[in-house]
Specification:
By secondary structure, this protein is α/β, with parallel strands linked by helices. Helix content is 26%, strand content 28%. The protein is built from eight helices and 14 strands. The radius of gyration is 21 Å and the shape is globular. The structure holds S-adenosylmethionine.
């Protein structure tokens, strides 16, 4: 499948990459390799002849700045493409994979909880899925704390409830179904969270910059944001996320690998 984007993209030309003075009106990106595709084009269709038409190709119409042709970065294009492949929402029908015991040994959510929260804390688990991290967060914050578990999919929240109710943890957990483009918690919850976690979810969110702004509003000053992304997210894209979080008012305090995945710890200024 080839995705196309219309010229409205002009308004998103924030971070530009010059590709010389040649006047072209469209360009091709390989979404998997996250790089422009250069090389010969078919004289009939204009598509690159060195790639197969497949799901990883994005066609981008370029706008002319007047002086030379510019293209926004690949990442910006990706954030404009509603169906970009590696940004698909993790389906609820595969939720059991997220709650596998093996994952517990790889990620040790109990240690994460011990390090970044204390009993009585209020914690946001954004993109909670079936509750793999929520469970340990709820155990850690105890009876006097609360975990707000937020997910786009009602089915994920139902699975979480089914998993954690028998463990007696639901008294500490508030479930919230959000919209794809907004967390939308009530304004009285702004500035009330001690810590927020976005575990393997930011790449599925259509507007990460907006997400980080919302999380910043929900956290107390000095509150912690822990964000981990899977290996399908390139270092470049991860760096983009960290930059957007910085713009939203976070400062980085630690950066590491979380098993084989990238992770960053930030504090709200
Ligand atoms: C890969 S799963 C990770 C779940 C959990 N954090 C974990 O690591 O076990 C991503 C989750 O984020 C949710 N999600 C995707 N896009 C979202 C959005 N825009 N807002 C809130 N949740 C979203 C999905 O429904 C899914 O449950």
């Amino acid at each position: 499948m080839i995705y196309s984007i219309d010229e409205d993209l002009k308004e998103y030309h924030l971070d530009r990459v010059c590709i010389g003075r040649h006047r072209v009106n469209h360009c091709y990106f390989d979404l998997r390799r996250r790089s422009p595709i250069v090389g010969p084009r078919s004289p009939e269709s204009g598509t690159p002849t060195n790639v197969e038409e497949n799901e990883s190709v994005l066609v981008v119409l370029l706008a002319d700045s007047g002086r030379r042709t510019v293209i926004p970065t690949v990442n910006q294009h990706c954030s404009m493409v509603p169906n970009r492949r590696h940004h698909e929402v993790f389906p609820a029908k595969r939720a059991s994979i997220l709650d596998m015991r093996l994952r517990w040994f790889l990620y040790r959510p109990d240690r994460l909880a011990e390090k970044y929260m204390k009993p009585g804390d209020r914690v946001l688990d954004f993109g909670c899925g079936p509750g793999f991290f929520t469970r340990e967060f709820a155990r850690r914050v105890g009876e006097n704390g609360q975990v707000c578990a937020v997910d786009l999919q009602a089915a994920m929240l139902a699975i979480l409830r089914g998993n954690l109710e028998p463990e007696g943890l639901m008294t500490r957990i508030r479930l919230h179904q959000c919209r794809p483009d907004a967390i939308d918690l009530p304004p009285e919850m702004n500035g009330t969270f001690d810590a927020a976690f976005a575990m393997f979810v930011v790449h599925e969110v259509p507007d990460p910059a907006k997400l980080f702004q919302e999380i910043a509003r929900l956290l107390k000053p000095g509150g912690t944001l822990y964000c981990a992304e899977p290996v399908i997210v390139s270092g470049e894209e991860f760096q983009e996320y960290v930059a957007r979080a910085g713009e939203a008012g976070f400062r980085q305090i630690d950066r590491s690998f979380y098993f084989v995945n990238r992770a960053v710890v930030m504090k709200k200024r």
